[in-house]
Design goal:
Number of domains of chain A: 1
CATH architecture of chain A: 3-Layer(aba) Sandwich
Largest interface: A-B, 31 and 30 residues
Oligomer: homotrimer
Number of strands of chain A: 4
Mean pLDDT of chain A: 82
Distance between the termini of chain A: 25 Å
Largest sheet of chain A: 4 strands, parallel
Shape of chain A: globular
């Protein structure tokens, strides 16, 4: 747990995208900011919720439509597609292999590290409702479920706001 | 029309994307901010201009290239594709159905609501020129056409800036 | 070189995307801000690094994986794909033709102009390492290679932060 320095500032990210490359970018920024003593909050919404899903939560959802949505909306932090070129999974596999060779942590390692550094993960209430997900579908590192108003209360006093 | 509270802050969004899911995210943030008394401006640029198009404006454009661009650049607020999975329109239809079941407003309803709450919609001058669109192609809720300099004048004093 | 006005504020962009349309949006914002006397920094990361590549740098990389990544991760500022519709290059060609007709500068012209106006281009250290790129692969307009911490030090005091 990093001690937050006074006046170190804060970063609030909206993580809308569920692709591996964008998630990596978000966690690189989040952990770098936390290492500088900045307060960091990530608001996970829409496809970004996939990043917080437990591996077994893949077919969650109360009705058939939601189950289909979650199926298509595939992936957890271990298995995300990429913005460009997926090619039957070859793109993400290559990125992971190259990051491994360069000693860049994997996404699940980044999530754990960010959590230990004090980065907060907030799932978006409305997206969860639409997708039929509950707090139980998410990893334990997750903080409480919040809505857009709570996100904005935090964001309006942040030094850096990004939509990823 | 919401009364803007002093010091409630402001939100300025660049809406570059024309997909339904990103547009929904933008309007959820915009209406939530307006409900908190924040000043909200949305600058619509590139594909985001589709969101402001009247239903019948689909084949606007002064020459054949622009007409093709507008045709490919398909959709109005009623008929947008999604970032992921389109599957002959099944993705957006599912999202709409699920949002309907959960009583989340549709995009045209969100646009109307945002306008009534005082959110301002500014179409980007340069994108309009490139795409051969004029102010007449857009819905009546639209404010005046502005350029990037006007956008930045607003953005530099905003609490929350996002590129969506 | 534009003289920076006191209190004109600053803009810091993360350019993650390598598509032509997003790159154009970033450079329109950057040059507009510079014309207002604002300080402008662009941090190029992931696919955004393509925009900085020299034309001949296309197959850079120290090993076969990196070479494949760079091949797929195709393009330099002269040859970028678009977010939507690529259609064997017809989309970007159309956009370029239409922008040409409307006297909007091309991306290489925008890069040169932005540089002359004092906009700084910083390539992201970690992305370069993963992709096996070195400073020599980039155009001369490029400033020094920096990491996420340096980006955040700049971003936290900026008026406008965007992730594109």
């Amino acid at each position: 747990m990093t001690i937050q320095k006074d006046n170190a500032g804060s970063v609030t990210l909206v993580l809308f995208s569920g692709e591996l490359d964008k998630a990596m970018a978000a966690f690189i920024i989040a952990t770098s900011a936390a290492s500088m003593g900045m307060k960091v909050n990530i608001f996970f919404t829409f496809w970004g919720l996939n990043i917080l899903k437990k591996d077994k939560a893949r077919f969650a959802g109360f009705n058939i439509m939601q189950r289909m949505m979650n199926f298509m909306n595939f992936g957890t932090a271990r298995k995300l597609a990429m913005t460009k070129m997926n090619m039957a999974g070859a793109g993400p596999a290559m990125l992971k292999m190259m990051m491994g060779q360069k000693k860049v942590p994997t996404l699940p390692a980044f999530i754990k590290m960010a959590h230990e550094m004090g980065v907060k993960f907030y799932p978006c209430e409305m997206s969860m409702k639409v997708m039929g997900l509950t707090k139980e579908d998410f990893i334990d590192e997750c903080s409480e479920v919040i809505g857009a108003v709570s996100y904005l209360s935090e964001a309006k006093d942040s030094n850096v706001n990004l939509f990823i």
